[in-house]
């Protein structure tokens, strides 16, 4: 702690979901000590990242693309248990096994330039070049580098339609979905074309009086395997938007929806018969431009999320297009700041790789100053993970 009462650390990690834990793992494997050289802060009350908030009927066997964290696989999970319990327990065990000492629940209020002069001989493009001041609910930190892994869960996107305030039924976001029972006997309009929209619609349909599915664009269902070549192509599309300084699109917009047997049955039964987006809400439902109307008791917006990065606003990282330009995981406007689980790394396997890449880049950035001791074999082991 310095003379102003601000605690100094080498690296601050914000967020303890998949990306944040992967970064913390690689920091530790390369010699950085938790609570001495780096600190991990998490806003959530428990381990599990966003998974802890998933609805209870989303069992582990319904989860697509969950990739193990580096250094420890998830084995023997009951496929019928809620994914929130399975993955939450796995993350908890991971934190304990590697002694990552996550601080929670801690809210990060703002990250701003802390001053104090450059902690390295060449700032490598960092604006200001000094330490970053991280203002939190447990006090302030001064960090030489920052790994931001805050994901999107805290920023659900709510579209606004004409007549929004006149609708007499319930309106909720998929983040508030806690299972199909509260929709029993209701006429439900589901808005959105992503995986959550499809999964929640298929759960609601058997108990609802009627369901209507609307999307902005026709959904694309993906047949067959999704291998490395397809994955690289999808990531390249997201990377191109980030390079242009535009906000990244949702994963499903570039990968499509996987065609499972359950989805195939839902399409055959008419549950997944899609309509284009309506024009406005009325007190009793929704209306299209051609005069078509559907009465509804509930509007469920499965419209996705935006990156939860408002706390970084004082650093002025955004481009005129609204996004943050990056080189790998490093933001181009500030070499000290890395975003993992953002844009091209917004997947479980991408988050793992991003965590490792961010740590490697930060070590290079801080190499001119004092470093915590580490063994060469630990570095080699980390690169192999």
Describe the protein's topology.
Layout lengths: L6 E8 L3 H12 L8 E4 L41 H15 L10 E8 L15 E6 L2 E10 L21 E4 L13 E5 L3 H10 L5 E6 L5 E2 L5 H16 L8 H4 L1 E2 L2 H9 L4 E3 L3 E3 L2 E3 L5 E3 L2 E4 L24 E2 L2 E2 L2 E6 L8 H19 L9 H9 L1
Parallel strand pairs: 1-2, 1-5, 5-18, 6-15, 7-8, 7-15, 8-11, 9-10
Antiparallel strand pairs: 3-4, 4-5, 12-13, 13-14, 16-17, 17-18
Helix pairs in contact: 1-7
Could you write a compact summary of the structure shown?
The protein has 385 residues and is an alpha/beta fold. Helices cover 24% and strands 21% of the residues.
Q: What is the number of helices?
A: 8
Would you report the number of β strands?
A: 18
How much of the sequence lies in strands comes to 15-25%
Task: Kindly state the percentage of residues in helix.
Answer: 10-25%
Whole-number mean pLDDT: 86
Q: How far from one another are the termini?
A: 33 Å
Quick one: overall form? globular
Main pleated sheet: 8 strands, mixed
Q: What's the gyration radius in Å?
A: 22 Å
Q: SSE order in H/E notation?
A: EHEHEEEEEHEEHHEHEEEEEEEEHH
Poorly predicted tracts of residues: 117-128, 373-385
Classification by helices and strands: alpha/beta
């Amino acid at each position: 702690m310095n003379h102003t009462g601000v605690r100094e650390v080498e690296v601050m990690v914000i967020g303890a979901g998949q990306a944040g834990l992967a970064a913390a793992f690689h920091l530790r494997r390369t010699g950085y000590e938790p609570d001495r050289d780096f600190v991990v802060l998490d806003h959530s009350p428990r381990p599990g990242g966003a998974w802890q908030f998933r609805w209870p009927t989303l069992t582990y066997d319904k989860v697509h693309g969950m990739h193990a964290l580096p250094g420890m696989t998830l084995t023997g999970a009951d496929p019928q248990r809620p994914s929130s319990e399975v993955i939450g327990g796995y993350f908890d065990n991971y934190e304990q096994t590697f002694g990552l000492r996550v601080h929670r629940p801690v809210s990060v209020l703002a990250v701003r330039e802390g001053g104090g002069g450059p902690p390295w001989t060449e700032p490598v493009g960092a604006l200001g070049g000094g330490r970053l001041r991280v203002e939190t609910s447990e006090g302030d930190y001064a960090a030489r580098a920052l790994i931001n892994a805050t994901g999107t869960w805290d920023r659900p996107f709510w579209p606004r339609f004409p007549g929004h305030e006149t609708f007499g039924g319930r309106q909720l976001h998929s983040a508030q979905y806690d299972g199909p029972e509260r929709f029993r006997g209701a006429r439900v309009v589901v808005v959105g074309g992503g995986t959550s929209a499809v999964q929640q619609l298929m759960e609601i349909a058997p108990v609802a009086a009627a369901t209507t599915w609307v999307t902005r664009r026709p959904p694309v269902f993906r047949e067959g395997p999704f291998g490395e070549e397809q994955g690289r192509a999808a990531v390249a599309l997201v990377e191109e938007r980030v390079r242009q300084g535009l906000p990244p699109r949702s994963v499903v917009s570039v990968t499509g929806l996987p065609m499972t047997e359950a989805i195939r049955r839902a399409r055959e039964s008419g549950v997944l018969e899609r309509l284009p987006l309506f024009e406005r809400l009325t007190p009793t439902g929704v209306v299209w431009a051609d005069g078509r109307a559907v009465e509804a008791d509930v509007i469920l917006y499965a419209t996705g999320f935006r990156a939860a990065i408002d706390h970084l606003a004082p650093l002025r990282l955004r481009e005129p297009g609204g996004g943050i330009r990056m080189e790998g995981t490093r933001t181009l406007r500030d070499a000290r700041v890395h975003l993992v689980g953002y844009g091209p790394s917004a997947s479980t396997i991408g988050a793992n790789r991003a965590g490792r890449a961010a740590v490697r880049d930060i070590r290079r950035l801080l190499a001119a100053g004092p470093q915590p001791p580490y063994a060469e074999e630990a570095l080699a082991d980390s690169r192999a993970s």
